[in-house]
Amino acid sequence: QINVQRPMCDSPEAEEAALVAQDYLNAQHKHGYKYALNRIEDIKIVTMPDGNSTFVLEIDLLETDCHVLDPTPVANCTVRPKILTAVEGDCDVVLKRVGGVLTVTAFKCKTEESREDICVGCFNLLPLNDTAALEFVNASLITLNNITANVSYTLLEVGRVSSQVVSGGPQYSAEFVIVEANCTDSVCLPLSDPLAERGFCTALGLHSQPTVACKMFNILMPVVDANNTAVPALPPAVHVHTGSLRHHKLTSLHDPYLVGFLSAESAESAEVVPVVPAVVDA
Amino acid sequence: PATLDLTVAQTGPVLLAPVCPGRVRFFK
User: Fewer Cβ in 10 A, N or C end of chain A?
Assistant: First the structure.
């Protein structure tokens, strides 16, 4: 009485399920970047006698340059090319179709970064806790705060940091998220107001000479340079990264009731971020 | 008992699209 189908990976039902999975996975994140569907690896549809179906999907996702706080639809985001160290997510996703509506009920992801295209003279991704890179981010924030009138920002999260060897020393490239802050003396605290202004910034330059541009989620701020008077150093309220994480990874979520649908890859699961408590649809 | 021959004459090359994995949207 149970019907098992293996439709083509590029079939409409596979594409529909994969896009639901992509949006669901992106909605799980509070840090890092949105991921875009790259390829549907496999699909199986189990249809029960009551007509409800379970989709077991294996998909390949690629990191985009849109931060998860950026309201830009993932379809309009740019996938990072290999040369900029692409980050790939492989996910097993279980979805249920009840009454025609597809919902994700479980997933498991592992994340890997491309290493094969690293070249001499190119930007190389640095660990998010790299001291020199974080100093560069802090210098970028000071540069930014020097040119913003009546408003100060503090660091919410560092998204990416990379460096390149040039004649004047290491050149850094950084991406970070800022939030409006209340600053007194040398201490800045993020505004708790949910309407506090947030932005996604990119900085480029030598260690103490960053050029910064910020996108305040649809408002592009002017590019500035580092010729302003320095303000007191701001304590970085950086999203904490432990161990040797090099990038933001896809969250791993596991529904024990559907464990049979998810492939057993315990060794690979060790690479994912510690499991977030599952909040599964009833 | 009679048997039914279901053999169909093949007149051209068979091009079977791979079922899975699907197309690569960006790069492999």
Answer: C
